[in-house]
Amino acid sequence: MSMIKYPKRAKQIIDYIGLEYGNIHPTDIDAVLEFDDLYLFLFEIKLEGTEFNKGQKILLKRIVDNWDRNYGNNLEWTKSKRKAYAIYCSHNIENTDKNIILANCIIDDIYGEGNYDDNGRPLIGKTVKDYMEIKAKQHNIHKLLYHIEDNYCPFP
Predict the structure, then answer these.
(1) Residue 17, in any domain of the structure
(2) Which domain holds residue 123?
(3) How many beta carbons lie within 10 A of that of residue 117, not counting itself?
(4) Residue 71: is its pLDDT beyond 70?
C-alpha cells in the first residue's frame, strides 16, 4: 500500500514558469525526514545514470551546512548535536507508470559528516532503508529504533 495520500495530485506537475531569474529558478526536494529538531535527511532521487543538478546540490549543501551549525542561541556551533545529510540516490524504474520505492533506491552520494557504518565501510551503494537503519543506530534515534529493532526499549 502506498503512503501517497493523493496519487492523482502527486502526478500533477508544479510548473515554475514565471519564476525564473536568469539561471536561478525554484527547485524541489524529493523527500525529507526530520527527527526531534536534531536529525535532518534530505533525499534527491534520479533515474540511474542521470546527473544530479548542480543548483540542487548547492542548495542541499547549504541547507545541511546551516542545519549542522545553527541551533537556537548556541554560539559554539561546532558543538551542536544537530546533524543533516543530503542523500543522492538512484533507481532503475524506467516505466513512468510504476512507482519508485524510496527504501529500495541505491545511494550514489552523501553530503554530510559521518558517511560510514560502525565498521568503517562506506554507506555509498547501500539502499536507503539500510542507510536509515544504520543512522538510527549511530545517532540513537528512538523514533526509528522503535520500529526497526525487536524488543527496543528507550529506557535501560
Answers:
(1) no
(2) 29-71+78-148
(3) 16
(4) no
Task: Please state the pTM of the whole predicted model.
Answer: 0.86
The residue among 68, 65, 75, 62 whose CA lies nearest residue 39 is 68
Specify if 142 maps to a domain. Answer: yes
Of 130, 128, 133, 126, which is closest to residue 147 (Cα–Cα)? 133
- 39: which strand partners? 35, 83
| Interacting residues of 21 by C-beta distance below 8 A, sequence separation 6+ | none
Domains held by the chain: number: 1
The string of pLDDT tens digits covering residues 1-40 is 677 788 888 788 889 999 999 988 898 999 999 999 999 9
> What is the pLDDT at residue 126?
96
> What is the C-alpha separation between 152 and 40, in angstroms, rounded?
22
